Amino acid sequence: MKTFMQKKEEVKRDWYIVDATGKTLGRLATEITRILMAKHKPTYTPHVDGGDFVVVVNAEKIYTSGKKLDSKIYYRYTGYFGNLKETTLREMLQKKPGEVIKLAVKGMLPKNKLRDKRLKRLKVYAGPEHPHTAQNPKPLEF
């Protein structure tokens, strides 16, 4: 019996749509990461990017437990001395609700060369509308 290794040319990608309304941020991010990495497929190969596309709608309606809205802080550095900017989760959800889910998924993906390719297949939208209806995304429930 030989070990199966998937080749880049053999990858078949599907489209999934996830409604983030009322979903916990971390649990949602782990499921999205699993689909982007193709761990849900029997043909999973660690060094081949065989994941699927994921469209997330209603990103502004995610749920976080406890006091995370005010205590969770996102940092970004502008590149200048003394310019480390801090933003709370509440402010991020008001300004850029899609970034919250993207950053959570980015932190859960392995830190290797495939990370950016996998993140490009994640499409996050704040409201219920999205421009990917032509791809016929399948609803994903968990």
Quick recap:
Helices cover 29% and strands 18% of the residues. It is of the alpha/beta class and 142 residues long.
Structural features:
four-stranded parallel beta sheet; two-stranded antiparallel ribbon; Ribosomal Protein L13p, Chain: A; 5 helices; 18% strand; alpha/beta; 142 residues
Structure report:
The protein is α/β, with parallel strands linked by helices and 142 residues long. The protein has one domain: Ribosomal Protein L13p, Chain: A (Alpha-Beta Complex), CATH 3.90.1180. Helices cover 29% and strands 18% of the residues. The protein has 5 helices and 6 strands, in the order βαβαββαααββ. It has helices at 25-36, 68-71, 89-95, 97-108, 115-120; strands spanning 15-19, 53-57, 73-77, 84-88, 122-124, 138-139. The strands form 2 sheets. The protein has a 4-stranded parallel sheet with strand order 5-2-1-6. Strand 1 (15-19), helix 1 and strand 2 (53-57) form a beta-alpha-beta unit. The longest helix is centred in the first third of the chain and has 12 residues, at 25-36. It is globular. 20% of the residues are buried. The model has no long low-confidence stretch (mean pLDDT 95).
